[in-house]
Amino acid sequence: MDLRKLRLDDPTATFSEERDEYERDYARLIQSPAFRRLQGKSQVFGAGSGDYYRTRLTHSIEVSQITREVARRLNQQYPFLTEQEHPALVLDQAVVECAALAHDLGHPPFGHKGEEVLNTLLTEQFGMKYEGNAQNYRILNFLEKRAGSDSGLDLTAAVLLAINKYPYCLDDPGRIKGVYSSEWDSIKELRDKWHIPDGCRTLETQLMDLCDDIAYSTHDIEDGIRAGKIQMHRAFFEDEWLSEHLVEEIVNDEGNLEVGWEKVDIKGMVKETLASYLEQWEEVYVWSGKESSRARREMKARWVSTFAGRVGIIDDPDRKWKKVTFVKDGREDFELLRTMEILKKLAWVTLIKDFRVQRLQMRSEIMIRKLWESFILPENGRRIIPPDWIDNYERHKSKWPWPRFVADYISGMTDTYAEKVYSELFANKSGSIYERD
User: Fold this and answer.
1) What span, in angstroms and rounded, lies between the C-alpha atoms of 22 and 90?
2) Quick one: DSSP state of residue 7?
3) What is the helix (H) or strand (E) element at residue 122, kind and residue range?
4) How many other CB atoms are there within 10 angstroms of residue 292's CB atom?
5) This model's pTM is above 0.85
6) CA gap 59, 38 in Å, rounded
7) In what helix (H) or strand (E) does residue 214 lie, and over which residues does it extend?
8) How confident is the model over 145-197, as pLDDT tens digits?
9) CA–CA separation, 368 vs 355, rounded Å?
């Protein structure tokens, strides 16, 4: 039995040879409603802010392209990958592409603000959690439907584990990210069959996660320059306010402690990176005939190429495993990792902390809270939640408590649909009530 192509729902199933199993997974993902809804979910700017800006859908497609190309190169560079001695130490291009396409399915409307609000509501009122990565598995293993199945997309083990960025049970004390206990048992079952050490991730997961960061640190900046939030002149890049806030974000980010910040002067490196970035922009701007649109695309392309070209695999002696990271001269390139983090923080500070974006986020929080209040009492929610959702709840309510059901329903909304339902419930005037949900 090929453990990588095992399917949880029917491990003995056989299919025709017309399509590879991973191509079957790819088709199931891109044809799923959850994937299509990503086009209406915020990346940085609200979905609908303009045709130029990225949504969760375009972001996921771009991550999949980077991931697949890097996987192709690494398979040529590292002979051990072709030996496939361990199912978790493999880089299949089709698998990493599927993982990248699916990695953001669990994000609710209105980006990270939506995730934060839903988690707060569930935690404070019911002692439950909401987390985007965990919600991925609610969607893939339970909420999504496919022909011939009443529950989930029934993806291969390789793809399911490649999506598992945080290989822990979220409901364990102290966990901030992970997998809900309702789905963790099946994920842990696969990990045990593969003999993956506790806390370790497959190479395909690691590559997808790193390429996600590459996309954040390059594409979001491109959108920020286009929107005028990142101003490409010295007064902006040399502003003390900017460097101080970047340092603050780096220091306060507890998930970013493994790149050796304690070994460098953080403020000095921030200023050096900003100066270098602006200097490169000035060169590219002239090279591009002083056309801002060409310069933005060229800057993005150069940085993606720089980061993607330095991805490699090294031994991880602490975990007795392998690690996908930036590599220089056979060792982990902490300087490039720190540079990427500075660029990610540049996008965060200039875009997310912009007062107009903060206004949108406050508006988003109000809408999600009001929707929650409308649905959370079952006697009210049953009257105004679509019948197919209620029917599904009735079939599965023994393992689907009402608060989780409400969180699932809200989190599946696009930004526009959430605004539509909010308007129907609270605005003075709305569109026709006969519009299809």
Assistant:
1) 14
2) B
3) helix 111-126
4) 12
5) yes
6) 9
7) helix 203-226
8) 876 666 789 999 999 999 999 999 999 998 999 999 999 999 999 999 999 99
9) 20
